[in-house]
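User: tokens in, sequence out, please.
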């Protein structure tokens, strides 16, 4: 029997307190995500249960019980509060590979009352700088492997008071840097976790938009209710599960469902910190008897490419539930998974950094229509809005903008220092309303920035994004950020970055550039540009193709017509150019 039982039934009986009842949480208990993911699980008698099964490159491995998680996260919390003197609400960046300290420190930062700002460890120094500057980050926790990137930008980050290295050789540190190895430090049995109220800030995730630099979506401790309930009902997590979320906590899936949701339920998580190799992934599933697996379409398509043979070489009989997020899950991938994993199909889920928790899902027990994202989670009012009038579309199959009535607990509270951009995500009467009033209004829609249609049975079908943001392998990259970095290359005069279709990654980045006088197109120059972006931004943002042009198409006011260039890549009818002009 699945946890959710009947989806339809919950549409009728849903109330905002269900999550608290499902977690058996009583008013007056401490609401702090860090505490609830560790101490509370121990208090309920599960301290000896495994919290984290970890494997890294080579044959490195480790295991932690919930009691270990409690004590070691206390260690981080104490270090952050007492040794560094980081105050409540200050941002602490966690910048490391998927090593155990990432998970332990995330829980610790929240216990200390600071805001956790996880960033993808493959980010180069510019990606890092933009996000640390925007958040006014006070402290960064990193490793010897990545600290070089921090050193490079430190001079330009006046707010960054502490650089802490949590793994590596302490003798290799610069003078102002601190070394803190939580496992070598004395175990901290008692820590007085920050008494969060529901609206206390918890996690900030940076996400890319179409214009401007990435935006910091601010979340609060109250998010735990949405995250835990969806983990219970959609991922179907139960106490004896071994659950693997393949996402990196540098992205929202890796925190909402790679840390918070499952640990709030006291579920064992398995983490594999190594690159993608199909046989390695299957061996990991097999060795740890993974029961529930949350992954992404690009990974699934990559597994499909490796074929069925390698699946059959492994005993995956423990697997019982599969789910996916981040990009469109094509019908073939659903059908393939059902075939090779013994009748178990990947269940698509749709949500965003801003929503903080799953919004449109395929539920255990509800028939899957392969290629559809499913239906809105109980308690969530979803719609697709007419592209022009912004009225909810009533006609089945008609394409519109995916929108939700605001106000669920995990919804972001603001884009950090960008209230106007936050406002622009709502349609309806927004004037004169505070950010909190926008979030709790029952006459407004929060607009996701994606297009879909709804069929006659209420299933949502993804159509595409409503903007130019590039989704490569389930990771959003902003064209503006790439273009800004491209024109820093000495050879480049002007640049546009667009997504071009790719059979596995859905989209990859393509750059279209003009050159400064004295530079000629060449294979070497192409490589030099690719490497430049890989190093300064990240491997995800690196263009897979560079097209050299004499000039770029522009609007009358001189702005590069990125949407026109994008339409060319997708073979779309570019029609009347004036409709592609951005304002
Ligand atoms: C959780 C996460 C959000 C964007 C979203 C949409 C795309 C996510 C999807 C999907 C089609 C799905 N997206 N899930 N597209 N089908 N099931 O991925 O957050 O990094 O903010 O990305 O990803 O475009 O708007 P985030």
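Assistant: Sequence out:
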């Amino acid at each position: 029997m699945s946890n959710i039982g009947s989806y339809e039934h919950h549409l009728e009986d849903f109330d905002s307190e269900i999550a608290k009842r499902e977690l058996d949480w009583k008013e007056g208990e401490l609401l702090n995500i860090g505490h609830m993911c560790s101490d509370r699980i121990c208090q309920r008698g599960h301290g000896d249960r495994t919290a984290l099964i970890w494997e890294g490159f080579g044959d490195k491995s480790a295991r932690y019980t919930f009691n270990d998680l409690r004590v070691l996260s206390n260690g981080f919390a104490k270090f952050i509060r007492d040794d560094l003197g980081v105050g409540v609400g200050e941002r602490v960046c966690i910048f490391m590979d998927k090593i155990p300290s990432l998970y332990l420190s995330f829980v610790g930062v929240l216990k200390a009352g600071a805001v956790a700002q996880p960033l993808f460890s493959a980010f180069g120094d510019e990606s890092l700088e933009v996000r640390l500057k925007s958040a006014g980050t006070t402290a960064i926790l990193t490793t010897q492997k990545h600290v070089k990137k921090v050193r490079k930008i430190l001079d330009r980050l006046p707010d960054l008071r502490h650089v802490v290295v949590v793994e590596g050789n302490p003798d290799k540190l610069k003078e102002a840097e601190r070394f803190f190895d939580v496992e070598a430090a004395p175990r901290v049995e008692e820590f007085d976790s920050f008494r969060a109220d529901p609206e206390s800030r918890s996690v900030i995730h940076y996400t890319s938009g179409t214009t401007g630099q990435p935006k910091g979506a601010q979340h609060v401790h109250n998010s735990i209710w949405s995250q835990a309930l969806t983990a219970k009902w959609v991922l179907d997590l139960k106490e004896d599960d071994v659950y693997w979320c393949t996402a990196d906590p540098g992205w929202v899936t890796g925190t909402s469902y790679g840390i918070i949701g499952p640990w709030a339920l006291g579920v064992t998580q398995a983490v594999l910190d190594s690159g993608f190799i199909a046989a390695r992934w299957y061996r990991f599933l097999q060795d740890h008897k993974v029961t529930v697996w949350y992954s992404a379409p690009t990974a699934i398509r990559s597994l499909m490419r490796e074929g069925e043979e390698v699946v059959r070489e492994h005993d995956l009989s423990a697997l019982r539930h599969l789910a996916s997020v981040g990009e469109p899950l094509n019908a073939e991938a659903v059908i393939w998974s059902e075939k090779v994993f013994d009748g178990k199909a990947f269940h698509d889920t749709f949500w965003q950094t801003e929503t903080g928790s799953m919004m449109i899902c395929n539920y255990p027990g509800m028939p899957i229509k392969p290629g559809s994202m499913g239906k809105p989670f109980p308690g969530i009012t979803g719609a697709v809005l007419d592209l022009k009038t912004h009225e909810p579309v009533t006609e089945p199959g008609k394409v519109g903008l995916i929108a939700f009535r605001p106000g669920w607990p995990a919804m972001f509270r603001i884009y950090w220092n960008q209230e106007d951009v936050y406002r622009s995500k709502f349609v309806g009467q927004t004037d004169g309303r505070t950010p909190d009033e926008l979030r709790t209004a029952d006459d407004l829609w929060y607009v996701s920035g994606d297009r879909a249609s709804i069929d006659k049975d209420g299933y949502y079908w993804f159509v595409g994004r409503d903007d130019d943001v590039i989704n490569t392998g389930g990771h959003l990259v902003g064209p503006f950020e790439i273009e800004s970095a491209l024109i820093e290359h000495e050879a480049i005069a002007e640049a546009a970055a667009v997504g071009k279709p790719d059979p596995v990654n859905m989209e990859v980045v393509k750059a279209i550039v003009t050159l400064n006088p004295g530079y000629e197109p060449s294979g070497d120059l192409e490589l030099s540009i690719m490497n430049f972006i890989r190093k300064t931004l990240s491997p995800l943002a690196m263009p897979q193709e560079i097209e050299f042009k004499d000039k770029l198409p522009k609007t009358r006011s001189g702005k590069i017509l990125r949407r026109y260039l994008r339409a060319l890549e997708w073979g779309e009818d570019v029609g009347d150019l004036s409709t592609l002009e951005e304002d």
